[in-house]
Write a structure and sequence with these properties.
mainly alpha, 5 helices, 0% strand
């Protein structure tokens, strides 16, 4: 219960922040992430959501189609953290600036695929 106010503030900031509109390019998204602690938290939450979203989508495909062997898109280690996820995206984006006009979610996917390939 003691975290409830913090969670409420984060949700409110997510709704009110300019970072909530993820139709922007990855370049715009990353520039928002560098503005301050609050924006960094919003960006981290976005990366978590996208990473888990891709995993959930893959699992949904496996469960609802005949494609029971839908490939893993990336394989994060058990000790993966939200902060690491954002660091991976920032590093990958700085090394691949030609992709920054794509969507932020695409860049999250590509960064994680490169950082955490599946064996």
């Amino acid at each position: 219960m003691r975290y409830l106010p913090t969670i409420a503030v984060i949700m409110l900031l997510t709704i009110c922040s300019p970072a909530h509109s993820f139709t922007k390019t990855a370049a715009e998204f990353l520039s928002i992430c560098n503005k301050g602690q609050t924006e960094m938290m919003v960006c981290t939450a976005f990366v978590i959501g996208v990473a888990y979203g891709f995993e959930d989508a893959r699992e949904h495909i496996r469960l609802t189609t005949n494609l029971k062997t839908a490939p893993d898109l990336f394989c994060v280690p058990d000790n993966w953290s939200a902060g690491q996820g954002l660091e991976v995206v920032i590093k990958w984006a700085s090394e691949n600036p030609e992709f920054l006009e794509h969507s932020p979610s695409s860049v999250v996917l590509w960064a994680h695929r490169e950082a955490y390939p599946c064996d």
